[in-house]
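Data availability (excerpt). The following record was deposited with the supplementary files.
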Amino acid sequence: MAGADTGQFASSMDDLINSFLDSDQYDESQKEVLRAALQHDGEIPYASYSAAWESYRQCLADKGYTKPPKNLTNGIYFAPTYVSTEGLTEIQNRKLDDDIDECQDSRVYAVDLAYRTRLGNPEFYGDPEVALVDCLHRKNLVLQNYTMNQYRKEYDSYMNDTSGGMPEDWFSFDFNDSAALSCLAANKSPLIQPRLEIWKPLG
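Predicted structure:
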């Protein structure tokens, strides 16, 4: 792909999953799902993926916070991007960040990445923008001559927009197309962020 960093973070789904299984960063509930996936070509059932996210939400509730909203786009879950720190001291805010990281790593990170990778990044591109553009091409959502450079120009135009427009005003693909949303969600595109609900950890 011209003008793109096509470096890969894994050589196969088995390679990716085994790297997670070799780490003590992830709890047994995730590893159980991953071991089962190894027996099914790396496929993780949606019910297992959803349960891992619910475990993450419960982990934060167990630490005394409200449960984060179920931010779903085309069946893909998102961790809270917008977090209201209203009422938190600086020390509490730092603890919140640590608690989010701990719950995410232990309960959902590995399952989430494996699930999304199989869905939207089968080439294991390390650059999520490259993975997104590749996904759009694979699903025939952009013209064959649509390049990374064009995507980046459109992205920069959107980010520099001061008129309050939505992402769909700036890009060559249809944001309301289900397949396009799947590509965006599977690759955790920041373009999804305007659709996400704010989380108020203290209610």
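Summary of structural features: The longest strand covers residues 71-73.
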